[in-house]
Amino acid sequence: MKSSRRTGVDKLADLLEATYLEMRSRPPESWSNLDLTMTQAKILFHLRLRPMRMSEIAPYVSSSASAVTSMVDRLVDKGLVIRADSTEDRRVVTCQLTDKGQEEVLKVWRIGRIQIEKIASFLSTEDLEVVVAGIEKLMVACKNANTPIDSTSYKTIPASSSLKSY
User: Fold this and answer.
1) 136-145 pLDDT tens trace
2) Residues in CB range of 39: below 8 A, 6 or more apart
3) Rounded to an integer, what distance in angstroms lies between the CA atom of residue 128 and that of residue 90?
């Protein structure tokens, strides 16, 4: 039974990675109209949740707080982000989206929605219902598993084989 579960987990990991790579392998033409780097877009997506300090943004984009500062500077120059002083601590500066920044996030979401609609057009209604039900279960599992992962545990996990063609 364990080997069948391991096989299922391996296949899930491979399929998720392959799906992600397939969906992101060809950025839509409309992406180039946004004038954002992928890292800048990631910063905007995280700021849509709430204002954040540089040190809070840094892990999401795998950068140092000082590198994030220069990335945010460019977003400020574009009018997408503002820096706000904390009312509780003058030393703390948070970044938050401007109205224009919120509109850019919506544009990216719309592009993603168009891609999903295109993909869904290749599924029957029945297959789409199965996919949605599976993703709903996956989301519940993601929320339940949303705990920090030991940074050394990756050494025991087999490398992905998602380079296979599905």
Assistant:
1) 999 999 888 8
2) 61, 63, 71
3) 51
- What whole-number distance in Å separates Cα of residue 113 and Cα of residue 145? 26
Q: Is 54 helix (H, G, I), strand (E, B) or coil?
A: helix
Exposure of 68 by Cβ count < 10 A (0-12 exposed, 13-18 middle, 19+ buried)? buried
Give the contacts of 85 (CB within 8 A, at least 6 positions apart). 92, 93
Q: Which residues of the chain register pLDDT less than 70?
A: 1-2, 25-34, 147-166
pLDDT at site 37: 85
Q: Nearest-CA neighbor of 94 among 51, 47, 44?
A: 51
Which among 21, 48, 24 has a CA at the least distance from the CA of 107? 48
Cβ-Cβ contacts under 8 Å for 166 (sequence gap 6 or more) = 15, 18
The H or E element that residue 96 is part of is strand 93-97
pLDDT at residue 166 in the model:
47
Q: What is the dihedral of CA 20, 60, 113, 160, to 10 degrees?
A: 10
With contact defined as beta carbons under 8 Å apart, do 55 and 73 qualify? no
Domains and CATH numbers, the chain: 7-145 (1.10.10.10)
Residue 29, burial from CB neighbour count under 10 angstroms (0-12, 13-18, 19+): exposed
